[in-house]
Specification:
The structure is a single chain. It contains twelve helices and ten strands. The protein has 451 residues and is an alpha/beta fold. The protein has a five-stranded mixed sheet with strand order 6-7-10-8-9, covered by helices on one side. A three-stranded parallel sheet has the order 1-3-2. A two-stranded antiparallel sheet has the order 4-5. Strand 6 and strand 7 (299-303) form a beta hairpin. The protein starts with 8 loop residues before the first helix and ends in an 8-residue tail after the last helix. InterPro entries: Prot-tyrosine_phosphatase-like (IPR029021), Rit1 (IPR007306), Rit1_DUSP-like (IPR033421), Rit1_N (IPR033449). Residues 334-443 form the Rit1 DUSP-like domain.
């Protein structure tokens, strides 16, 4: 049985849902190993989460109704909602919807734990009220695979459904054919679970780049797609380099396979530095805001490329591999601790956490505003901020120099609550599981390996 973890996936899931609920639902794409049509994330984990969220929303609405605080507009679609308590569960579907191939015994075991997981979600500090105000119909998963047959004329408009669809699309093939050879220069290998390792296949293309050029990329076809990506990434690199920003070239090593065809995951792609073109054609990457104040804690999470531009901070903790030129009046107000992802070094974060927290303590004692930054501003810096917040602040977000931390036994649930607090403000945060394990090992006095 797959047990859902109430960790970094919560804020991301909630933010994604808030974005898509206004559109009437969302589509999630994943893949799995050969011989399976759907990954466990779609067969069990996501259905569990939809059920847990539905129950948490129902509990919140019932509590508000009982106290007379729920606004009528939140239940406008359900005119009889408050008339009969017994009708509530029928109006808002809280049942567990699993695919038919999940055994009944496993379904029963999952149902026994739903209430516990719902309580954990409610205790984590997640903003259930915000989701309740946006979600007008309960969540329900639907499964689509390569063998699914859909008669479009029999599919009603989503406005006619009595639930908000979470459409789970499996990109896996149940056959053993995993290589798709085309007439293009490249072929591709199917790598299960590589969807979230974009550094291994995205060739430097960011989400903002993709959505800015989505029509050009799709229309270019398999023969020209790689070159189109290279052009987009290089134009953005040149644009940033001309403005003095950190803009390294993207290189991927070249490996030839036995049949003489290059493996796309290892194709050498040295983005041309001598590309010609008028500077007026170069467009910025249109990245969204990458600097976030964590409530009133004097902590800021951001990217290293914006660190030099921050004029409203007193000290900076740089967790990027590369140093950054920073102009601060006090030389001791800047600390550079080079760190890498847990995929590259399992103990990089863990080994640097004592120095990072000590630096934060010295500056926060003086009520200084501290910027914690890394290359992306989404992973390492968020984990460092989580460690600082847990070590030096109480559960209400007030700096107490570590007194509450000394008197508290930090559990995973407590750390998750702090993480949810951080992610309420740092909305782009996506800390990796490996880095979170290192933070938990540090907070509990253990090791990163045993966390």
């Amino acid at each position: 049985m797959v047990t859902p973890t109430i960790g970094p996936s919560i804020p991301l899931a909630l933010i994604s849902m808030l974005l898509f609920f206004l559109k009437g639902g969302c589509i999630i794409v994943d893949s799995t190993r050969k011989g399976k049509r759907f990954p466990d994330s779609m067969s069990k984990t996501i259905p569990i989460w939809t059920c847990v969220l539905n129950r948490a929303i129902l509990n919140y609405r019932n509590k508000m109704l009982d106290s007379g605080l729920l606004m009528n507009r939140e239940v406008a679609d359900y005119s009889n909602y408050a008339e009969d308590v017994k009708l509530k569960n029928h109006i808002w579907d809280c049942s567990l919807h699993l695919p038919l191939w999940v055994p009944d015994t496993e379904k029963a075991a999952i149902e026994e734990r739903i209430e516990k997981w719902t309580n954990q979600l409610e205790a984590s500090g997640a903003d259930i009220a915000c989701i309740s105000s946006c979600l007008k119909k309960p969540l329900r998963p639907l499964w689509i695979s390569q063998k699914t047959v859909i008669w479009l004329n029999e599919v009603p408009d989503h406005n006619q459904w009595d639930f908000t669809p979470i459409i789970l699309v499996s990109a896996s093939s149940s056959s053993e054919v995993f290589r798709n050879k085309t007439t293009s220069e490249f072929s591709w290998n199917y790598i299960p679970g590589a969807g979230d390792d974009e550094e291994s296949w995205a060739r430097g293309l960011t989400p903002s780049h993709f959505w800015s050029h989505v029509h050009d990329l799709i229309s270019s076809g398999p023969d020209l797609c790689n070159q189109k990506v290279a052009d987009i990434v290089e134009k953005d690199r040149v644009y940033r380099a001309h403005r003095g920003e950190y803009a390294p070239q993207v290189t991927v090593k070249n490996l030839k396979m036995a049949d003489g065809v290059a493996d796309v995951s290892n194709v050498e792609l040295l983005l041309a530095s001598n590309m010609h073109g008028d500077d007026t054609t170069l467009q910025p990457s249109n990245d969204y805001c990458t600097t976030f104040w964590i409530g009133s804690t004097n902590l800021v999470v951001g990217t290293t490329k914006h660190a030099a531009l921050m004029s409203n901070v007193d000290c900076i903790l740089n967790c990027d591999k590369e140093p950054v030129s920073i102009n601060l009046p006090d030389s001791e107000a800047h600390l550079h601790l080079p760190m890498v992802s847990s995929k590259l070094d399992r103990f990089s974060l863990f080994n640097n956490l004592p120095a990072a927290v000590n630096f934060a303590k010295l500056n926060l004692r003086k009520a200084h505003r501290l910027l914690v930054c890394c290359r992306s501003g989404e992973d390492i810096s968020v984990c460092i901020c989580l460690a600082i917040l847990t070590s030096l602040f109480d559960d209400k977000g007030t700096f107490d120099d570590g007194r509450s931390f000394s008197a508290t036994c930090i559990t995973k649930l407590e750390m998750r609550r702090r993480l949810v607090f951080v992610c309420k403000f740092a909305i782009t945060a996506r800390p990796s599981r490996g880095n979170l394990k290192q933070v938990f090992g540090f907070l509990t006095g253990g090791s990163a390996a045993s966390a």
